[in-house]
Structure formats: C-alpha cells, structure tokens
Amino acid sequence: MNAAPNAVELAPGTHWIGALDPSLREFDIILKTANGTTYNSYCVRGDDGVAIIDTVKASHADEFFSRLEQVARYEEISTIVLNHLEPDHSGALPELMRRAPQARLYISAKAQLMLKALVKTDELQFSVVETGDSVDLGGRTLHFFSTPFLHWPDTQCTLVEEQGILFSGDVFGCHFCDARLFNDKVGDFRFSFEYYYQHIMRPFREHVLEALELLEPLQLKTIAPAHGPILREAPQSYLQRYKQLAAPLLHNEVGTNDKSLLVFYISSYGNTALMAQAVAEGAETEASVRISLYDLQASGGLPFVDLIEEADGIAIGSPTINGDAVKPVWDLLSSLAAIKVRDKLGAAFGSYGWSGEAINMIEDRLRGLKLRVPVKGVRAKLIPNEEELQRCRELGKQLAQHLTGNLERRVISMSELLSQEQANA
C-alpha cells in the first residue's frame, strides 16, 4: 500500500502521527513480518495542552515529525506519554524533548532506569504514573493503567476517557503495515494478530489475564496499539480474543486438583522408549497425577507447546549420539522460549552407547529455562536391564510425588550418594 501522506484523524482533536515500515521482514530477530509494520504514535489535543502518546523508531523520526507538525506546534506540547520504552517506541523521544523542552514526560515506575539509559541527561522532567493516575489536558483526560510484562516490565496503557480511545502499547497490536490504518479498512490481518500474540504475549499469559480485568470494564470505542491496525470496529472483540488465547484449557480435561506430567522420548533402537514407559509406570503410582507419553520421532516438538504450557512437569528421554542429545529434543526445548515454564518440574533420561552426555545436557537446558530439576536423571548403557528400568520407575514415582507434595522425607548417606553417582557414571 502507498504510504499515508498525512496525519490521520481518529476522533476530533486526536490523530495518528506514526510511521510506516512496509519493507521490514524481520523484527527483533524472532518475528517474521511478511507485511512490514507500523510504529504508531498519536497526538491528543485538549483545551489546555497537547499530548503525544509514544514516538517511533529513530530511523523513521522524520516521518513522525512531519505528521506531528501537521496537527500541533511544538510549544503547545505539554505532555508526552511513553507506554513502553523499547526503541521502536522511544527512538524519537530525545529529539522530541529537544524540540518541546517544556513538555513533561509520563512513564511507569519500572521505566525509570530504562529512561536514564535511553536519554543521557539528568535534566529531563518526568512523572511516574500508575493505575488511577490521570492528566487533564482540558476537555481531554488521560487515564493510566499499569499493565506490566506486556511484554516488558515497564508497559502501561493510556485511555482518553471522553473519546473512549485506549492507547494500548504493544498489547492488541501486530506487525502488519497497511496505509489504510483502520481494522475495518485494511487487509486481513488475523494471522498477524495471533502470530504476534503467540510470540510476544504468550509467555506472559497470566499478566494478560490480569490486564484484561482492568481493561474489560472500560467503554471502549477504539483501541490504538503501538503496532498494526487501529481497532475501531468491534474493539471489545479483540479483548475477548485475547481472553480466549490466554485462558487455560487443560482444566477441561484434568481434574482441578490433579497434576499433569508429560513424558517425551525419542529412541533409535527402542531402548530409550523402554525407559520412557518405565518412567510413566512409576509416575502412575500416584493416583492424582495424569501421565501422557509422546514419541518425538513421530510428531516433532511444535504440536506439544500448548500441552507443555499447561502441564505441571515434563520428562524428556533421548539417546546420546555423537556426544549430544538428538535434534528433535533440542527443537522441543527451543520451542519452550515462547511460553512460561518457570518453576515447572523437569527431568531427563536416556540410553547411550559410549558416553551418555545427553542427560546432563538436557538437565542443564531445563534449568536454564527455569524449570526445577529435583531428581537426577537416569542413564542406561545400551539395552536397559531390570535394575535400570526400576530406577526409571523410581524417577517417575519421585517426579509424581514432587508434583503432589507426597514425597517421603528420608536421610541419604554419603555412601548412598556415591553409589548413585557410580551407577549414573
């Protein structure tokens, strides 16, 4: 689409003054942007002053200032709000403050340290705001809502009460560039909207639900995010879609008080598969733990992300090949960066022919992802014997007991620890 040449009115006295980046094909390394993106900034005019809501990426500052100058003079600007300080939102801030030195900046409490790193001066005037605070522009009132971790600690939303416009920052946004700007005018952006949620907001699902409790009661006519289309047609439907995406689903399948343990494995000659079955058998001795067993060779890792997100624990079995765990295991583990797994339970097991490094490597990765690994993994050389399978059953049982809190307390002697180390060596 052709670039929008002018500032665009959202409501009387309120304009989009952002920038278009249609050629962008990758954002922050992790996101593909087939349709480019927008850096949305907004200007709100009251009787007593003008507010700028967010700025743009530094590389697009000229476009931003050109549109700003169409609707306001720099000396009129009394207020600048940054809902989020990531560079794609704050890149033009230093120059804006130079051009409008009288303006006061409003940020969240957690944005203060980031601001000092962004603007290398101690002379900047700013105020910290939280939910319940407001700024009166004269006939236009800005209300602030603290929405941390959507998707950085500093994020917030800003509402123009009289017009029912919510400037939402990254939440409800997406990377989709279309100069027609409004959701009832642009092309079909549903894929981009949900792709953005899955990669940016999904790891913070609990914070999404907390934010929705704040925002759902508002009488919204428009949601104006920092990226992508401005949502003026059925804005509440986008809140409802976020609620659907963030709502846990596993409670429909697993009892309220039950725990879920997923056992994943991949096996070259069936040996690690035997160990996986033994882990599952051991875990099943705890009645309130639901066990699921999955072969990664047949399915790959990506379909399991939804399951892992809602499970309480995972155990991963891999053979050691060339001194490493096998690729499907690493693919599964790398996919976990997109979801919240902190404090879930994790464990590893597997068969090996020579060295058996895979188990320790998987455990290290689980710890790096902030899972708890309370039980040492089990290794078996080649075909596991009955003693090694029993150790796998004990591994599964202990994992299940950790999940339920039924773990028996016992004293372990130093000789026992040494024997366990020798058995795993």
Task: Please state the second-level CATH architecture of the largest domain.
Answer: 4-Layer Sandwich
Q: Strand-residue fraction?
A: 15-25%
Secondary-structure-derived class: alpha/beta
Strand order of the largest sheet: 1-2-7-8-9-10-11
Domains, number: 2
State the separation between the terminal residues, measured CA to CA: 62 Å
DSSP helix fraction? 25-40%
The Cα radius of gyration reads 26 Å
The number of helices is 14
Describe the largest sheet. 7 strands, mixed
Question: Which fold name corresponds to the CATH topology of the largest domain?
Answer: Metallo-beta-lactamase, Chain A
Catalogue the unreliable spans: none
**Main CATH class of the largest domain:** Alpha Beta
DSSP strand count: 21
- The CATH homologous superfamily of the largest domain is termed Ribonuclease Z/Hydroxyacylglutathione hydrolase-like
Overall body shape: elongated
Mean pLDDT comes to 90
